[in-house]
Model the fold of this input.
Amino acid sequence: EKSETEFEQGQASQENPDASALTQIQISASVQDIAPTAAQSKTLHTCIKKVTEDLDGFRFNTAISALMIFVNDAITWETKPASVMKEFLILLQPFAPHLAEELHAKLGGAGTLAYAPWPKHNPALLVEDTVEIPVQVNGKLRDKLTVSSTAATPEIEAAALASEKVRSFMEGKPVKKIIIVPRRLVNIVV
Done:
């Protein structure tokens, strides 16, 4: 960000700006040649899957939206793996080819992105470990549980009944029925 500000100020003050000023822009120190975390890989592969499907279906706006979701998530990372950023640039290239090529060169990429193979998502990285399930009492949302995605119905029921927020709405009332839609919803009728 600092080099970008310096570049913009330098360009504004020059009468005849030239392309050599682009060398002032540097890649952030947070972009490092490290292995991505599981969460970073999941974010990247979610983006790859969505952009690929949207481009195949000519849904360009939603493909760009998926790129924006990735960027918003990547901004929060303390360190950004260069390998993840390079794959992201391949996804960005159809929408912003000049910018993607410049950043690719800054990251030390060889050749042009136009001939780079399109990345493929890894379905194993997209599997959710946990799910957030809303808990309702008489049809009104009272709590949200985070449980394992493989949790059985009795486990989910026990967690819902053990919730402090839910118990406060059930005090002194007998449970008539518990409706559980696996991975989606728990509704307790009192």
Remarks:
- The first strand starts at residue 31 and ends at 32.
- The mean pLDDT is 90.
